[in-house]
Give the backbone structure.
Amino acid sequence: MVGRLILILGDQLTEHIAALREADKSRDVVVMAEVRDEATYVRHHPKKIALIFAAMRKFAARLRDDGWDVRYTEYDDTDNAGSIVGELLRRAEQTGATEVIATEPGDWRLIEALTHAPIKVHQHEDDRFIASHKVFERWAKDRKSLRMEYFYREMRKATGLMMDGDDPAGGQWNFDHDNRAAPPKRIDYSGPMRFTPDETVEAVLDLVEAEFGSNFGQARPFWFATDHGQARQHLAHWVKKGLPDFGTYQDAMLTGERFLYHSFIALYMNIGLLDPREVCEAVEQAWRDRHAPINAAEGFIRQIIGWREYMRGLYYHGGPDYLDSNVLKHDRDLPDLYWGAETKMRCLSETVAQTRDEAYAHHIQRLMVTGNFALLAGVAPRQVHDWYLAVYADAFDWVMAGNTIGMTQFADGGLVASKPYVSSGNYIAKMSDYCGHCAYKVKDKTGPDACPFNLLFWHFMDRHRDRFQNNPRMAQMYRTFDRMNDDKRETVLREAGAFLDKLDAGETV
Ligand code: DLZ
Ligand code: SF4
């Protein structure tokens, strides 16, 4: 009997993936393919492409060792069809298969391509996530706003993580107030575990340099984990050395300290090298063993079973149109400085440089530096989304949509965030050491050296007054704005406008 094709995508690299569980090793054929369409739907960072191709090749080898018939297409194979559907059709012709078993992809683009493919594709729900679509929909039904905090509590109860019976461990659901310390003087964690590329990884790096050498960033030096064993070693290392101080300093930013105490595991979880439950259990155990404080463990677990699951639920709940939300009608092009063009703003130059070098920046750099600036400047949210999707090794549509369109750009009108994440330079000054090295002065509210965040903040408030002035969380800001004398208000708005003109003209700002 002719078997079926079992599709495994580049971010579905685990034996526990739904499609594989449905498969019959004795007759089905696993299809994996490095294809142009996936590698180019945005200009992915070369390190991201290298991570995915290397991990795909190693996972294919592991499946073969385990007795599976794997048909693997490398990027430069001459008969590569260039797309996932094209590859499925080619393999169907070779094997005589008439059906495909797949796991639902993490973006609508590919879900739709599989749905309309000229071969029958069964898409099984991706149950690597804790909340199924059904669970999320049941929770979201009839709610006006979908606040993460309440969803998170449901997830705590459902998983039993950090629970003492029916109560939250430590008597509180959320210890975030302990997690906002300014940068420490010294970091005593040496950062993510680094792995020397083996032969498979080196071959991928050569390929990526040849094919994607002009993308933003470079494939080498490359030290990411590319298989399950390495990812687990990295996790154990971080739990031991990084977790204890993770909570306290999770929002801090320090020049030259690119990882601080952050876990650097989203990229591994999102492609299947680490399982979110396994990661959370390791973290909870570290707390129960008194190795890490509760604010670190709870704060971390909230990111995974709270934010991560919530963003995923929201992506499917919102449907394909969510990505085009733009309630603030922002339409400025993403400034070139996001792609490394010179800027005098130290917070941005530092964050963009580390993004280019590492394909990584932590959540506050993303939210309060690059995200905040784009929102204040009125950049088209879809362009912001595509930038995050391209430059971060952990970025996939399902996770970035809620984070960029919803959280950083407020383009969904407040489904995700109760107020826009905008701030003047003060927040950055408090949480980082960037301002001390900046050409602008964070204390200057107007004038030639005024921090652009200070100017743009009021420009944003002014242009969106109708929408936000009755928001209780923004009212205080409008009162401050209205207390300014007319001269000062005019000067701020004029200087902000002049700054935006310079930005549009491509001048260095
Ligand atoms: C991101 C990515 C890249 C760069 N390349 C491939 C590829 O060549 N083959 C593949 O199967 N998957 C790749 N991926 C991951 C997919 O883009 C991802 O599965 C979808 O965006 C859905 O999340
Ligand atoms: Fe950024 Fe303003 Fe601080 Fe400069 S002064 S680093 S632009 S916040």
